[in-house]
Design brief:
Length: about 120
């Protein structure tokens, strides 16, 4: 359920065709709750296994109980202003997040990840 999610790990990579579609999904599905949306590729860049790295970063951040903000030099122009994009590091409550992955050739994955906090 949406209320069980603490945040969303976005697949955003700076390509308008994919990022616009993804942003539309967030506006339509999660607008009421305004879940924090973290585009880890702002830190890691885009490469063949970046989805796996983003998943690992999401698990680590959730275990630690914080979300990163955007890097100072990140270009997040693809995001509509009505989405909740953390600008600075913020504490995180909850242990579930939605991980979105979009691959070459149109492959897509969406999974809810439950993290045990230590």
């Amino acid at each position: 359920k949406e209320q069980d999610l603490a945040w969303i790990s976005s697949a955003a990579n700076g390509l308008p065709a994919l990022d616009t579609l993804e942003a539309k999904l967030y506006r339509e599905r999660f607008h009421a709750s305004r879940l924090p949306l973290v585009p880890f590729k702002s830190y890691t860049g885009e490469f063949a296994s970046s989805g796996l790295l983003r998943l690992a970063l999401g698990i680590l951040c959730t275990q630690a109980g914080w979300l990163p903000g955007l890097p100072a030099d990140a270009a997040a122009g693809w995001l509509p202003s009505d989405l909740n994009l953390p600008q600075h590091t913020q504490p995180l409550d909850g242990n579930r997040f939605l991980h979105i992955g979009l691959g070459i050739g149109g492959a897509a994955v969406a999974m809810v990840v439950r993290v045990e906090k230590q």
